[in-house]
Amino acid sequence: MTPLNPTNITDLSARFSGVVLRPDQSGYDEVRRVHNGMIDRRPALIAGCVGNADIVDAVNFARTHGLELAVRGGGHNVAGRAVCEGGLMLDLSLMKGIHVDPVCRTARAQGGVTWREFNRETQAHSLATTGGVISTTGIAGLTLGGGLGWLMAKYGLAMDNLLSAEVVTASGDILRASKEENADLFWGLQGGGGNFGAVSWLEYRLHPVGTVTSGLLAHPFDCARDVLKFFREVTSGLPDDLTIFGGLLHAPDGAQIAVIILCHCGPLAEAEAALQPIKKFGTPILDSVGPTSYEETNRMLDAGFPRGALNYWKSNFMVELSDQAIDTLISQFAACPSPMSGLLVEHIHGATTRVGVSETAFPHRQEGYNFLVVSEWLDPADNAQNIAWARESYDAMRPSFSAGRYVNYLGDDDGEDAVAAAYGPNYQRLRALKSKYDPTNLFHLNQNIRPI
Ligand SMILES: Cc1cc2nc3c(=O)[nH]c(=O)nc-3n(C[C@H](O)[C@H](O)[C@H](O)COP(=O)(O)OP(=O)(O)OC[C@H]3O[C@@H](n4cnc5c(N)ncnc54)[C@H](O)[C@@H]3O)c2cc1C
């Protein structure tokens, strides 16, 4: 290991096409900040890369000097895994290249792209792929961990649409991974998170997606039990075109509401017929469901997740939504301390469930729900109260949980067992793969898979 000194940093900066930032330089604070305002870490160095050569130099630099290495894609990970205390933050946020091939219906995008940027280019051709539920999340972190989103029932997870990736591994090699090339690595990238290297390019399969029918139906909190039971009934027989979430949220005026949020990506007439019973149910105080673009759909919840807000999330999969679970959701939400927080139940069915458990690293292929506590607030003085509420809500829901957890929602305090639980039957294979591509665990600031 070579000790770090100012000359080494100057040498790195001189070679770099991107920007190398030290703590005393302007721009440093803006880049080190991630989505979650709870995260306040100060890397010794930020390597703002613009291409593979920069990434290779940054990875080699971190390895040679024994520095902690964090990789930032969109910076949305709630546990703040994109940034390290001391060490080197490999920042991909300058890497915004996107190329759409409308004939082959594929898109290649760089590791710093967000879904908003990606959708803008693909939607120019009336094409899209499954992205996140909101548009400000990074494509890389979301895809590498799985990728639940509005198009998943029809087209699978974001990760199921990944065709190939370009990766800079811990040894500083640039590898292409696909079903044909380095197929073992590609398998690991489909769900294994940032464990196998820094991904500079991702290539996706696209689908014809123009106008969709989407929006939110809000009911008074008094009706929450009926709404959630109705949501359960509806989810028992959905067409692939329809992805639907239920939950308990706050209206902009702070009132507690029960919601059904959905996106139907099929023909408008079919959407109208499929959604009629949902729109007719009860007496909604708001019904924003109607035809709109997919791009707009991906932005419809953005305002609820401002950058810099304080966040603490917990989640677990559930096979069913029992009466007991519904009662617990309601009693926990009644005690919610922040008007920004919510309890969400994300329904999973269709194409996502028609992939084998070990076909990709992401094993959760059963029809069911992902339960998510989104605890979000603004004042640091309220940290303890809001974290406690999230933990209590999660604990109260435990009797309803199935075995699996979603890696992209794991927090720092969930521990190594949670990562093993998240990968289930694929965990040992992932550990062997980690030993092959990153035997010293250089890429460990992630949902970490330990080498054997
Ligand atoms: C407001 C909000 C909404 C969300 N909505 C959804 C949703 O709808 N569906 C869903 O599935 N998830 C959702 N998530 C969770 C999201 O998938 C994860 O937080 C994901 O890690 C974010 O990816 P990112 O690139 O923005 O994150 P980052 O914080 O940049 O990175 C997260 C992890 O991925 C690794 N990583 C990132 N980019 C690369 C890369 N190019 N190469 C290698 N490793 C990389 C990082 O090292 C880190 O370990 C949401 C999160 C937030 C905060």
Q: Radius of gyration from the CA trace?
A: 21 Å
Assign the CATH topology of the largest domain.
Vanillyl-alcohol Oxidase, Chain A, domain 3
CATH architecture tag of the largest domain: 3-Layer(aba) Sandwich
CATH class of the largest domain, anyone? Alpha Beta
Helix percent band: 25-40%
Q: What is the number of domains?
A: 3
Could you give the count of β-strands? Answer: 19
Estimated share of beta-strand residues = 15-25%
**Biggest β-sheet description:** 8 strands, antiparallel
Q: Could you say which small molecules are bound to this protein?
A: flavin-adenine dinucleotide
Count, helices? 14
Which blocks of ≥5 consecutive residues have pLDDT under 50? none
Structural class category: alpha+beta
Please identify the oligomeric state.
single chain
The chain-level mean pLDDT equals 97
What is the CA–CA distance across the termini?
23 Å
Shape: globular
Task: State the main characteristics.
452 residues, alpha+beta, Uridine Diphospho-n-acetylenolpyruvylglucosamine Reductase, domain 2, 8-stranded antiparallel β-sheet, binds flavin-adenine dinucleotide
In short:
By secondary structure, the protein is an alpha+beta fold. The chain is 29% helix and 24% strand. The protein is built from 14 helices and 19 strands.
Describe this structure in words.
This protein folds into three domains: 6-91, Uridine Diphospho-n-acetylenolpyruvylglucosamine Reductase, domain 2 (2-Layer Sandwich); 98-208, Uridine Diphospho-n-acetylenolpyruvylglucosamine Reductase, domain 3 (2-Layer Sandwich), CATH 3.30.465; 211-415, Vanillyl-alcohol Oxidase, Chain A, domain 3, CATH 3.40.462. The model has no long low-confidence stretch (mean pLDDT 97). α8 (224-234) packs across α11 (323-334) and α11 (323-334) packs antiparallel against α12. The strands form four sheets. Strands 12, 13, 14, 15, 16, 17, 18 and 19 form an eight-stranded antiparallel beta sheet that branches. Strands 5-6-10-8-9 form a five-stranded antiparallel beta sheet. A hairpin with a 5-residue loop joins β8 (162-168) and β9 (174-178). The chain is of the alpha+beta class and 452 residues long. The relative contact order is 0.13. The protein has helices at 6-15, 28-32, 52-64, 115-123, 139-145, 152-155, 183-189, 224-234, 268-280, 294-299, 323-334, 383-397, 415-423, 427-437; strands at residues 19-21, 45-48, 69-72, 88-91, 98-101, 106-110, 127-128, 162-168, 174-178, 198-205, 207-208, 211-220, 242-250, 256-264, 286-287, 290-293, 310-318, 342-348, 368-377. Flavin-adenine dinucleotide is lined by residues 34-35, 71-78, 81-82, 92, 111, 132-134, 137-138, 140-142, 144-149, 193-194, 198-199, 305, 408, 445-446.
